[in-house]
Queue: 2 jobs
Job 1
Amino acid sequence: MGLDADLHWNLLDNGSWFGLVLLHQDENGRWTSAVEGTFRFSLLLSDVPREILSDTAKQTLDPLQRRPLSSSDANRFPWQSGTQMQYGVLGVHDNGFSSVVSGWKAVDFLSDGNTGAGHAPNWLLAAIAGSIGYVCNDGTSIAIRIGDLFYTHLLYNGNLYSGKYFSEGEEIGQLKPGSFSNSCGYASQGSNWFHVHWGFPNTGSFHVEGWTLSLSDGKWRRGGETRGTLSWFQAGGTSPPSCPTSGGVILYWNAGYNCSNDKGNSGFVQVNVVVELVSREGIVVAVAAGPTATVVSVFEKLD
Ligand SMILES: [Zn+2]
């Protein structure tokens, strides 16, 4: 597609990705094939022995069985819990690979591997469970798609092949440090720095770990907090520091003292002076003394 007169071309700009093709040879030596997304593909896929592809892997490889996402989502940041990576200066930018996925966006997350400073070590983790559906390998670095996420700038390892299933949080591989450039991606960074170019469909926003990324202004928001480029983000935080943990009674949006939400409010309600018991004619009234006194419960007094 779109070839120049000089016939210089590359797979990314001029090729088109039509999806996985399954080939099957029957007892008579005849080959049949099916392209992903067709009913025939689902049939052939179901015939693949479990030792080669698990049921879960089959399900995530088959577009007819895959759960459609209404908005872009990941369950976790793709690096080790309790460590941080830095949101890249480009903010929201194009994912590329337009012959594979159309109109996708991406963000960069960087680290220098300085775990002493709390920075993430060089291990990329699966942000959501799924099977590899596409691999770009130019001999310099690797890019892969797993479901509705793209991970670009990996170093080669033997697990990076189509059909390989990763559970959530499982190690995918290491990222390529330093500067490089080839057809599956390029980076300009210090020799000890590495980053993932993390892509997702352009649905207006992207959600992960309680954060909402606006694809229009490139800002991350959680509760009352807003973060832009060059901010560091910690993975696997179940109790974000912005959630209070002392002072009266606190109602959190989520279980586990977690006030993250994407509703644009603080995600918690705090009542400073808790409860007064008022007894009137055999009835005990519990009053929470916040900004305005509110009757929260009425009990029958036990004699
Ligand atoms: Zn990038």
Job 2
Amino acid sequence: MNDFKKIRHPEKINKPDNISPKKPFWLKVKAPQGKIFDQTKDLLDDLNITTVCEEASCPNIGNCWSKKHATMMIMGDICTRACSFCNVATGKPNKLDLSEPIRVAKSVARLNLNHVVITSVDRDDLYDGGADHFVATITDIRKYSPNTSIEILTPDFLKKDGALEKVINAKPDVFNHNLETVPRLYPSVRPGARYFHSLSLLAKVKEVDPNIFTKSGIMVGLGESQNEIYQVMDDMRSADIDFLTIGQYLQPTIKHHKVEKFVHPDEFDKYKKVALSKGFLLVSSSPFTRSSFHASEDFEKLKKIRINQLNNYKSNLK
Ligand code: SF4
């Protein structure tokens, strides 16, 4: 941790306070506890593994860690972007820790995971945006845990020529990159990113290796309209994205983007129905949906759906 970490979001200090409405009853969660939760925490602490579960103050941590499901965050805990929704600390990152891929691989083996999700901070300071580090992490996990499926949730590798191709060639089982919000809100929510760049990144993954499942997610409650959400769904389908996640945005601190709306669970159900009708293989849409929530179970579902589709296709040919 360097000095920049002392103030988690230096760029937000002078921003006005954003007062969000009071949380509705359906967003109440129990405090995390339990033996397996403690074991997961001890093991991750022991190997000095950073998780997005803690860094992003995820409300699902009790649920996930009680099943030994944690999303490991590589390349440090300081991000070079300054998105207005995100609780990950921002500033000048530390040097890359080249021992990290092996430590992550050892922790995956010790947790005996069937499926692991690896994410990272944005590393615009690195010549390849961290692509080589992703590749090393995937390679080491495969070495220590050949039967574990690997899902990656990557940055956008904006202006890093050749970086995306390197990561695709490492053959993760699931390639996730979140669009996060509708294009109109990018300047205020995700100012360092470009909507159509993120979309084309996902389209490229499918184009290069159609065997990799692609996945993307948005948060709702940031001020988007329903029609804008439907347009994002259409854009995602045109990029051939398999799996859509939709969850409620929660404000990490008073300096972050305001919650404009707490979307009712019924509205999430409606989004799920509409999205499925647009052709996604799988949709997770609920107030607590996060891109890595239930990732292991969802990967099994994705595989089954694809096999069924192939079988149907073959029987139609007969
Ligand atoms: S949903 Fe993802 S980020 Fe949240 S606790 Fe679970 S694994 Fe961690």
